[in-house]
Amino acid sequence: MQIILSHTEENIIETIARAAQQLQMPAYLIGGFVRDKILERPTKDADIVCLGDGIELAHAVAKLFHPHPSVAFFKNFGTAQIKLPLPDGTLFEVEFVGARKESYTEQSRKPTVVAGTLQEDQLRRDFTINAMGISLNANDYGTLLDPFNGMRDLKAKMIQTPLDPLQTFSDDPLRMMRAIRFAAQLNFSIAAVTFDAIQKDAHRIKIVSQERITDELNKILLSPKPGIGFDLLSQSGILSIIFPQMMALHGAENIDGKGHKDNFYHTLKVIDNIAKETDDLWLRWAALLHDIGKPATKRFETGHGFTFHGHEVVGARMVPKIFAQLKLPMNEKMRQVKKLVELHLRPISLTKENITDSAIRRLLFDAGDDIDALMLLCNADITSKNKQKVHRYLQNFEMVKERMKEVEEKDHLRNWQPPLSGEDVMRVFGLPPGRKVGIIKDAIREAILDGIIPNTYEDAYTFMLQKAASLNLQPI
Ligand code: ATP
Ligand code: MG
Fold it and tell me: Which one of 257, 288, 311, 411 is CB 3.0 to 4.6 Å from 293, fit for a cystine?
């Protein structure tokens, strides 16, 4: 089998082969590394399966490198891992495991594992394209071992299981999501029998841990066209179980000739659009969730049509709940996604009226460091089929961006702090922390954002004295 390896990869693989030969233990490259090398995709890890103790092989390999990498091993699973430095400063991970066969019982995730042959090990892998091995043994070094014709399926861009798909999915239902993830990552099709089995077994996704499910969701979202994956999740019946809020975006209703677009397919287009512009997972989540508040706010107004008033506020409020439900991190990233969902209509609203500087200033202040991300999201949100319309929207955005640049240069609002703080107010008037301090501080900020006073210390000070006087306060 001819695959293209970097010099470092070649060195790593030959060293593994040498260690295996020293131990007289047959060993094979297997799974994702073989698949990705044949497809000429970049790889950052490799799996080795051996006929013997994977932990012993890992130690033997580690000894041949200088300095010796440490071996992380898990006795219960019989797996071991070493990390080797690459020329670009990153690490290449190699995982070792003894060939095995395993079976899961109907209700439990705990597999029983026993040693097996290479073929048995290949049989328990999820897809034919993930079950190919390459020999590292002296007698047939480099031979492709492909009992299920993974090579044919790679060429046909086809995902199918080596066994009866119902069997493969019943052993580990996460494989149903992996099939969909590979379809999105590689732009492959899922074989009809395999997809039928996914539809039939979709409910069994319930026994899989949320962490494993969310890992796959993130990988789908990070693929070149995430929309492919979410469409398949929806068609398979899995999405309604793991993410009903997204499923609720489906449907384009029509009353008395007034309709609205299908928010599910619109959302898929928005994620595909943003995927062309950024690899940032959280911006992609923001695109996925930007209209999530629409089903809850949908109304029909006679004579006017469907409205979704306040969907950005309702949607933003849903973000923390969805993050908690999906066990996504409840940190700064969640807050960024929430903010982007909440602000996603603002730049569009700025293209409509005769826009004042103060409206632009407010957006810069509210978006802060996320302003560029917000503009990317808004661009991606334009999904009209009408080319002229799209062109007009994009032009309007360019104008808003231009205005933002001018205002930003003038007022520096991006990470702006008002020139007088709450502490300043307390000091000048001898006030304890309390309601009055808040009123004065907010009034200063609003006055500057509204352009009533310039953004300087002196102007803010004068304004503060006036505002305080109206509250019967004098400087001490
Ligand atoms: P990626 O690294 O992009 O997630 P991968 O196919 O390399 O994709 P890994 O999780 O690294 O996936 O697993 C390596 C190999 O182990 C797979 O190619 C497959 O042969 C096997 N494998 C992984 N997870 C499963 C699973 N849930 N069921 C069956 N086989 C699996
Ligand atoms: Mg891998």
Answer: 311
